[in-house]
Design goal:
heterodimer, A: 399 residues, mainly alpha, MetI-like fold, 18 helices, globular, B: 336 residues, Rossmann fold, 4-stranded antiparallel beta sheet, 11 helices, 12 strands
C-alpha cells in the first residue's frame, strides 16, 4: 500500500487551482516577475552597487574587499532569502511527494525550523561579525597604479559615499541616474533603497496582519456584546487618519527603520480585522465549526486551525495591497523627512532632495526614485487584484 | 430483566431565544432520561424544539440570542449546566459526541478526514501520532468504509454524502463516548443510505453499549430502534412512552395524528391523512393546550383552550399531556 501511495496523483489542491487561475494572465505574470526581480536586486544589493571591488590585487596580494565589508545585516538577509527559497522548493516537493495526511504537519514543522534558523542565524551574525569600516578608496588606488586587476560591481559606488566634486550632476556616463546634493550615486541609492522599501512593506504588513487576524478572529467568533463594542473601537480607529497619526507618533520616536515598520504595522490592522471578523461571523454558524466545538476541541484550535484557513483568502489579498500601501507610507514619511535617517537610502528621501536643496529642480532625483515607487506599488496592486480574482470565482464571472 | 441505569437525565429544561420581536420559548419544561445502552428518540415536526434540546445537552445553544432559562442536565452525576466551560470541553467529544444533520458541511473542507479524526483522538486520549492514525483508519473500517488506509488521506470533497456521514460517525465514536446525540443523522441522505447509517448506529451500539439520543421527524425509524420515545410539540413534550406501547396505543391526539399520517403498505386509493393547520410559531403560541386549534378533540373545549395540560404519568412508563387521555384527569383538576 505504501508503494501505491507514492505514485498516487493527489489531485488538484486549492493552491494549485488559485495559481492556475492567477497564471492565466501573462500581464499579471509580468508584474509578478517584476516583483521577483525587485527582490533579487534588494537581496543582492551590495553585489549590484558597491564602491568596493569583488577582488583586487594590491602589492601582488589578491584581496576580496567587497566580501570583507559585508555587514551582519547583509548576511542575515542572504540567509533569510536562502532559507525562504529552500522552503518554497520544499513546499513544491511536498505537493508531489508527501502524503497529504501528514502534509500540513510537515509544513508547519518545516516553517518552524526555517524561522528558527533565520532568527538564530541573525543573532549569531550580529554577535560574531564585527562592524568593519573599510574606508579605503580602491578606485583611487587603481588610478594611482597601486592596485591592479580589480573587478567592481556594475554600479561602482557606495550608497554612503559622498563626493562633493560630483554633486548634483545630471545623468551621465559615470553616474547613470545622476548624483544627489552630496555627490552620492542615485542609481546606487535607489538599488539599496529597495531593501528598505521591501522590508518595510513586508514587516509592517506582517505585524498588521497578525494583529488584525487575532482581533478579527476573537470579535467574529465571540459575537454579541464583545463584537459590538470591539467593532465600534475598531471603527474609531479607522476614523483616525492613519497617515497623520503616524506622523504624530514618528515625531516622538527616534527615526529608525524598525520604529517605522512597527508604527505602520500597529496603525494599519483595522482592514484585516474587519475582513477576518466578517469571515468568522459567517464561519461561526457553519456545521463544521459546530462539529469541532461538539468534539471538545480547544478554542485555540477552533479559531486558528479550523476557522482561519477558511478565512485566510481575503487577508492574503489585503496583505498584497497592504505591502503597496506600507511602501507608499514609508516613501511619504521619508519625503517629509520623518523617515529613516540619512545616509540610509530610501526612495522617498531621495525624491525629496529633488526640490529642496539649492532651489534648482533636480529632475533626476525626483523622476527615478518616483518611478521606482510607482512601479513597485503598481506591481503589488496588480498582483493583489489578480490574486483576488483568482481566489473569488464569482468576481471572475462578473468581469 | 436488564438492569436499567440512567445515563442522562434532563429535568425541567427551558430554553429561551431573545429575538427582536420578543422572547421565543424554544423549549419549555422538558424532562426525560436516557438509559445506559438504550436508544431514546425525540420526535417532532420542524421547529418543535428537539434540536435545541439536543444542543442544550452539548451546551451549544448560540448565546446570544439563546439562553438556557431553567432546568438541569444530569450526566454521570454532574449537572452539565453548572460545570465550567473547561470541564464541559472534556465532556464534549469524549463522553458525549454529536452527529449533525448535514454531512456535506459538517467536515472541515481544508483538512483530510484523517487529520480531523486524529485531532479528536489525540485531544482526548494519550496516543502518539502514528497510533492515532491507526485508530483513525480502524474507525473508518468500523463504520464500513472500504480501503480505510487510503480514505484517511482524502479530503471531504472527495467523498459522497453517505460516506461523509460515516466519517462523522467515526469521528464521534472515536473516543468511545457514553452518549451519542444523533441530530437527524439521515435527513440529508437518500433512503438506501439512511437504512445503512441507522443499521451502522445499531451495530455500533451493540458493540460498545453506548446510549443514543436520536432526534428525528421520521416515526418509521423510531419504531424499530428506540426503546423510549418522546413526542415533542410546540416546545413541550406531548407524550413520553416506551415505543412499543406508543405505537400500539397512542394517547395524545397529536401522536395519533402523526401515526395516522404515515403511509402504510397495502393501503391504496385513499388520501393520506394530514393533521389540519400548521405548527404555531414560538412567538405566537395559542393559549391553553398548544395543540388545541388542530385537535379533533379539543378544538371546542373551553378547558383545552385556556389551561395547558402538564405532562403526567398515566400508566407505567407512559406520560402524556392531554386532558382527554384516559386516566389523565385528577379529582382536583379545574373543570370548565
Amino acid at each position: 500500500m505504501s508503494d501505491n501511495k507514492k505514485h498516487k496523483d493527489w489531485g488538484t489542491s486549492y493552491g494549485e487551482m488559485v495559481w492556475h487561475e492567477f497564471a492565466k494572465s501573462k500581464f499579471t505574470l509580468l508584474w509578478l516577475g517584476f516583483i521577483v526581480v525587485l527582490f533579487v536586486v534588494a537581496v543582492f544589493a551590495p553585489f549590484f552597487a558597491n564602491d568596493k571591488p569583488f577582488f583586487i590585487k594590491i602589492d601582488g596580494h589578491l584581496r576580496w574587499p567587497l566580501f570583507g565589508a559585508l555587514t551582519a545585516s547583509d548576511y542575515s538577509i542572504f540567509l533569510a532569502a536562502f532559507i525562504t527559497l529552500i522552503q518554497l522548493l520544499l513546499i513544491l516537493r511536498n505537493k508531489r511527494k508527501v502524503d497529504p495526511s501528514i502534509r500540513s504537519g510537515v509544513l508547519w514543522r518545516q516553517i518552524f525550523v526555517s524561522i528558527s534558523i533565520i532568527i538564530i542565524g541573525t543573532i549569531l551574525f550580529f554577535i560574531f561579525i564585527p562592524k568593519r569600516l573599510d574606508a579605503t578608496d580602491y578606485k583611487s588606488m587603481i588610478e594611482n597604479g597601486k592596485a591592479t586587476n580589480a573587478l567592481f560591481a556594475p554600479v561602482p559606488y557606495g550608497y554612503g559615499r559622498t563626493d562633493l566634486k560630483v554633486r548634483e550632476q545630471a545623468p551621465n556616463r559615470q553616474h547613470w541616474l545622476g548624483t544627489d546634493d552630496v555627490g552620492s550615486d542615485v542609481l546606487c541609492r535607489v538599488i539599496h533603497g529597495s531593501r528598505i522599501s521591501l522590508s518595510v512593506g513586508f514587516v509592517a504588513v506582517g505585524i498588521s496582519s497578525i494583529i488584525g487576524i487575532i482581533i478579527g478572529a476573537i470579535l467574529g467568533y465571540s459575537g454579541g456584546k464583545t463584537d459590538f463594542v470591539g467593532m465600534r473601537l475598531v471603527e474609531i480607529m479607522m476614523a483616525v487618519p492613519v497617515f497623520f497619526l503616524i506622523i504624530t507618533i514618528v515625531a516622538f520616536f527616534p527615526r529608525s527603520l524598525f520604529n517605522i515598520m512597527l508604527i505602520i504595522g500597529l496603525t494599519t490592522w483595522t482592514e484585516d480585522a474587519r475582513f477576518v471578523r466578517a469571515e468568522f461571523l459567517k464561519l461561526r454558524r457553519q456545521d463544521f465549526v459546530q462539529a469541532a466545538i461538539s468534539l471538545g476541541l480547544p478554542l485555540r484550535s477552533i479559531l486558528f486551525r479550523h476557522m482561519l484557513p477558511n478565512a485566510i483568502a481575503p487577508v492574503l489579498v489585503n496583505a498584497t495591497f497592504g505591502i503597496a500601501g506600507a511602501i507608499f507610507i514609508e516613501a511619504a514619511l521619508s519625503f517629509l523627512g520623518f523617515g529613516v535617517a540619512p545616509p540610509a537610502p530610501s526612495w522617498g528621501q531621495i525624491l525629496s532632495l529633488g526640490v529642496s536643496t539649492t532651489g534648482r529642480f533636480l529632475w533626476w532625483l525626483t523622476l527615478f526614485p518616483g518611478l521606482a515607487i510607482f512601479f513597485t506599488v503598481l506591481a503589488y496592486n496588480i498582483v493583489g487584484e489578480s490574486l483576488r480574482d483568482a481566489i473569488d470565482p464569482r468576481l471572475r464571472e462578473a468581469r | 430483566m436488564i438492569e436499567e441505569v440512567t445515563l442522562l437525565n434532563i429535568k425541567g429544561l427551558s430554553v429561551d431565544f431573545f429575538t427582536e420581536n420578543g422572547i421565543a420559548h424554544a423549549v419549555q419544561d422538558v424532562s426525560f432520561s436516557v438509559k445506559k445502552g438504550q436508544t431514546f428518540a425525540l420526535v417532532g415536526e420542524s421547529g418543535c424544539g428537539k434540536s435545541v434540546t439536543a444542543l442544550s445537552v452539548m451546551r451549544l445553544i448560540p448565546d446570544p440570542p439563546g439562553k438556557i432559562a431553567a432546568g438541569e442536565i444530569n450526566f454521570e452525576n454532574r449537572n452539565l449546566l453548572s460545570i465550567s466551560e473547561q470541564r464541559m470541553r472534556s465532556v464534549r467529544g469524549n463522553r458525549i459526541a454529536m452527529i449533525f444533520q448535514e454531512p456535506m458541511t459538517s467536515l472541515n473542507p481544508v483538512y483530510t478526514v484523517g487529520e480531523q479524526i486524529v485531532e479528536t483522538i489525540r485531544l482526548h486520549q494519550k496516543k502518539s501520532e502514528p497510533e492515532a492514525w491507526e485508530i483513525a483508519a480502524e474507525m473508518l473500517r468500523k463504520v464500513g468504509i472500504s480501503e480505510p488506509g487510503q480514505r484517511v488521506t482524502e479530503y471531504p470533497h472527495q467523498m459522497s454524502g453517505g460516506m461523509r456521514q460515516r466519517v462523522m460517525i467515526a469521528m464521534a465514536i472515536s473516543c468511545k463516548p457514553q452518549l451519542l446525540i444523533a441530530d437527524e443523522p439521515t435527513t440529508a441522505l437518500d433512503v438506501t443510505i439512511q437504512a445503512q447509517i441507522l443499521d451502522l448506529l445499531d451495530s455500533l451500539q451493540q458493540q460498545s453499549k453506548m446510549s443514543i439520543l436520536l432526534i428525528t421527524h421520521n416515526l418509521g425509524i423510531v419504531a424499530e430502534r428506540a426503546q423510549d420515545v418522546a413526542v415533542m410539540y410546540a416546545s413541550r413534550i406531548a407524550e413520553l412512552s416506551n415505543s412499543k406501547s406508543l405505537f400500539e396505543n397512542p394517547l395524545h391526539p397529536y401522536t395519533q395524528g402523526l401515526l395516522k399520517s404515515l403511509p402504510q403498505l397495502g393501503f391504496t386509493g385513499e388520501r393520506l391523512y394530514t393533521i389540519p393547520g400548521i405548527v404555531p410559531e414560538p412567538l405566537h403560541f395559542p393559549s391553553g393546550c398548544k395543540f388545541h386549534p388542530r385537535c379533533y378533540l379539543g378544538c371546542n373545549d373551553k378547558r383545552c383552550q385556556t389551561i395547558e395540560p402538564q405532562l403526567r404519568e398515566v400508566a407505567l412508563g407512559r406520560q402524556v399531556a392531554c386532558w382527554y387521555a384516559p386516566g389523565y384527569e385528577r379529582p382536583d383538576d379545574p373543570k370548565l
